[in-house]
Design a protein that fits this description.
three-stranded antiparallel sheet, mainly alpha
């Protein structure tokens, strides 16, 4: 071969593929905020089993993409302007404290990790890959929380 290396194959589980498919549909607007998700219909469209779709929805709920309401089903998360403002205000307060605490604990390796994460965020922004950008944005904040040394902040 001409000096170029082949890209390694990434092992991706079926559940992760279903999660990625949902995220892409949500971020691209194919599935709208507030829209109900019918598990059997999605399973049929994806060629996946209902249990696999349920597992993916649990993961998406943990990530905030969907909300499950008992006896009503699952819907894509809809955030109103007031919700976004409240979340932003809370993040500003918590992040300020996390940064102060992180300054006491940060190591050169932590700084390198943060630089690597921000490079991936920039890459996602340049490519207009919203999922890559958001995943790395979240990874950046989680790393800050971890560096803060406060396990309760990490749990938020």
């Amino acid at each position: 071969m001409s000096g170029k290396a082949l890209k390694l194959i990434q092992p991706v589980s079926k559940r992760d593929q279903v999660v990625a498919s949902f995220k892409e549909a949500i971020l691209s607007g194919i599935i709208q905020p507030g829209e109900s998700i019918v598990e059997s219909k999605v399973a049929q469209q994806l060629g996946a089993g209902i249990p696999l779709v349920r597992e993916a929805l649990i993961e998406l709920e943990h990530q905030g993409y969907v909300q499950k309401v008992p006896y009503k089903g699952t819907t894509v998360t809809r955030l109103e302007r007031g919700d976004v403002e409240k979340i932003f205000r809370l993040r500003v307060e918590l992040e300020s404290v996390a940064i102060e605490w992180a300054k006491e604990n940060v190591t050169p390796a932590d700084i390198e990790d943060l630089r690597g994460i921000t490079a991936k965020m920039k890459e996602g922004a340049r490519a207009l890959d919203l999922d890559q950008f958001y995943q790395n944005d979240l990874a950046f904040h989680r790393k800050l929380w971890e560096i803060s040394g406060n396990e309760y902040l990490v749990e938020c």
